[in-house]
Amino acid sequence: MRAVLSLFAATAPEVAGTIYFSETFGAGWEDRWTASEWKQSEGTQGEWQLAKGKYGDDEGIQTSADSKFYGLSAGFDSFSNADKDLIVQYQAKYEKDIECGGGYVKLGPKMADAKAFGDPTEYNIMFGPDKCGYTKRTHLIFNYKGKNVLKKSDLAYKQDDFGISHLYRLTVKPDNTVKVEVDQTEVYSGNIKDDWEILAPKIIADPDDKKPADWVDTSMMDDAEDAKPEDWVTEKRMVDAEAKKPDDWDDEEDGEWEAPMKDNPEYKGDWKAKRISNPEYKGVWEAKKIDNPEFVDDDAVYKFADFGFIGFDLWQVKAETIFDNVIITDDVAEADSFASKWKALNEVETAAKKVEDEAKKAEADAKKAEADKKRSDDKIAKKAAKKAAKKAFKIRRTGPTGPTGPTPLEKRKIAHVTAGAEARQTLTQLRRVHLVDVELLANMSPLPGVMPVPGVMPVPTVDVFSPSPMGSPSREGEKKSEDVFLAGVKEVDRELSNSMELSNSMPRSPSWPMGYDTPEKQGSSESHTPDLFS
């Protein structure tokens, strides 16, 4: 007999699971789904469309416009999940940050009018991502005796990346346990009776229990033996004893004069006695616990008598969310078969997004490197230009002057002009190694009596080189000269392609002082002037 039973068990066909509803949004999907008109009269009802998304070729339904309500539902033969597993699974893909809105599904009893589907519609379960600003979670709401009950603590939100499809699966079992998976990874497992306030609490505080009149629940107290010091000053303001009535004060016109108030330097603040532990403290009082007379246990909180529709009832600030591959079943193998569609698409999407992200990162890194180099080069070049200008000033002022040499005033003027020429040559060379761009001061004209030099920064019209009363160089004039020149160091004027030629073609003046070389001799064996780059 045992052998016969074993043979029967081996040959008996395995009972196949049931698919209550499935949808891949292929041809004819509009005939299987009904668009809601709940917000049509208000002009805020959004329209659905087919779309593939940024990556991949699998089409799903997509919300089309921002700041709209979206409603779409599909009916099926009614069933109850009594004594069997319920598995709900679907894909959601956000093409951009939704900002405020949902991507969840609702399952409920058969509807009389699917076009009226919306927020007031009764449902059994709501499941999926929801976000508004910084508040975001994966919703899982169960309806129990007409009341929608949220989970005591939020489930993790997994919809922060864009262009990637995520797979949501909810499993509800007859033992009242629930499991939530996102992308085939478990994010929650627990019991409805423990983690949802479905039932009234089993134990409550006794409403007839009262705190005794002599119960002390203050843990700290003032030290009765602590006394305020005699020299403790609590007056924050005091009369200014040194103030005197003004001589022109008229009591009849100005009233009786009163000395003004001032801050009291002896003020120590409000005095408070030190705090000590209260020896009478008995702790925090709590009423005693008793059984709740209103508690009624229910071992079938998981069970719903009628499932007849699934739908999307959403508000979205930013749209373009794509939903696909929906299935309701009691068989994990059937759910896994649908999950394989998601997995293949997810791999394509993830790979494409990785390539795009790497390209964007490379572009951003290149721009940052270029900006960093420019900032570094500008800093180096400005420092070099400033050093060259200062060195030029010093060199030109220390050249020897013979009997026919220039006067101190002329000498300072020449120093200013030649410093500009030499600094310009320096900046031109820096430009040629891509270190800096500079722009010499514009709208300037040379001083009367000073030799104009083609291509060289002109001398300002205000004579900042006027001699001091003793005939010695004016330090203030020198500082102003540096400021005038350095203020012009910004960007190279155009390409500066002819700056070196102009500088090298400067004519030698008959009044050019001894020790001051023309540009063509600078840096040569005949030069009396040190090279700025030496």
Q: What do you see in this structure?
A:
The protein is an alpha+beta fold. Among the domains are: 15-196 and 302-330, Jelly Rolls, CATH 2.60.120.200; 374-504, no CATH class. The chain has 8 helices and 22 strands. It has helices spanning 2-11, 29-32, 192-195, 251-254, 332-397, 408-432, 475-487, 499-504, and strands at 19-23, 34-35, 48-51, 60-63, 68-79, 86-94, 100-102, 105-108, 125-132, 135-144, 147-150, 165-172, 177-182, 185-191, 203-205, 220-222, 237-239, 261-263, 275-277, 289-291, 307-316, 321-329. The strands form 5 sheets. Strands 1, 3, 4, 6, 12, 13, 14 and 22 form an 8-stranded antiparallel β-sheet that branches. Strands 2, 5, 7, 8, 9, 10, 11 and 21 form an 8-stranded antiparallel β-sheet that branches. The chain has a two-stranded antiparallel sheet with strand order 15-20. The termini are far apart.
Mean pLDDT equals: 78
Gross morphology is: extended
Helix content: 10-25%
Oligomerization status of the protein chains: single chain
- Give the H and E element order: HEHEEEEEEEEEEEEEHEEEHEEEEEHHHH
